[in-house]
Design brief:
two-stranded parallel sheet, 14 strands, 41% helix, 14% strand
Amino acid sequence: MRPEAGHFTVADRSLDPATGEAAFTYRLGDDEFTERLTLDPALLTGPAPAQLDAALDLVHLVMGTSYYKLAAPGRVTVERPVTAAQLAVAQAAYTHGLGEFAAVNRLPVPHRVDFDAEVREPGAAPAGGGRGALLPVGGGKDSALALVVIPDGTALAVNPTGAQRDVARAAGVPLVEVRRRLDPLLAERTAQGGLNGHVPVTAINSSIATLVAVLGGHDPVVFANERSADEETLTVDGVSVNHQYSKSHEFERLFAAAAAEVGTGYFSLTRQLSELATVAAVAALPLRADILSCNRSYTQRHLGGQAEQRWCLHCDKCLFTFLCFAVFLTPAEAEEMFGGDPLADPSLADGFRKLWATEKPFDCVGERAESAAAMAHLAASRSWGDAPVVRELGAEAAAAAEVTGATVARFLPPRGGHGIPERYLTSLQRVLAGARSAVD
């Protein structure tokens, strides 16, 4: 399939109240794809039809990025009328949200998409639900902190794994599960030469979470995306490309406007926090033993690999997460938590070095400066200074951190804009106040 071939259409959608199955159909050239979500049928009796329709439309728009990318034709036709806020979310998801995809496939950056859509006025926004917050969880440190800050919320997992169930169970929070099934034709067309690459997964999960919130009467939807999501992964011809764009504050504001039209609040609880600040809080909690932030483990599980999810300790996300936790844990504590110590393996030095390189890894890792500051901090510590990787990279990291004056201490205070309601902000500040400060 040639990149310029085809025309992409966001076509039909349906919801079967008897089975809880929602179907979302797309057309690309002569192909038709249908993705399916399985929801709890007991939820389908609550929302008003207009509210439910708007939530389904939001899912339909954003989820289409998975099929659009097969050919990336640069034009999208939307058959159902959408609001201006919904269209703004879609435009962001298909352009900036596919920035990494475009760069990897050597398409023009920024990726440009024209939308052919009828814009309608939104209906009157209904009052939010009365069942408390809905917290999408991935099983890692960020969602774990959110579960502690908002203990009376409900967790949500899309295609749940053991890691997601474990962290919800450890936090004592109920878990709602949603099954998402891609159309098998997508894999066939990819194998036949269709384009492939990263899609804005957080945008997709945000739309699914908003639908579940509408169905279940939850309000607000609370994500845990830190301020590091605003930093670009690399720059192509002067244009920023961000692996984490749909976790960024810019996208959060766009999506919050569309969620508000269906009566659901939407914000990131950790928007003001660096990755180090989140780790400082989680490292002081018993819940740290139950988290998993390894994308490779998730992929292996879903490809029929290892039965038990665990830290691989080789991928970029594992190395970054271990580096941050090492700042607040002893080597023995870190090894017990992760099941190993990558800082003891000299062959991984280049993997750690990439964390503050000009071109960061295409993964959910933190800011360059905080990675350098963390390694420099370990180099100056008594407990970590002799670790082989720390010995090799300590001086280099310190020099990189010095350029911006970065230190671990400077990354711990909250900073920047956010959309957190006061009641949640107060609870977050209480948990952060109880976290241990930088040690050693």
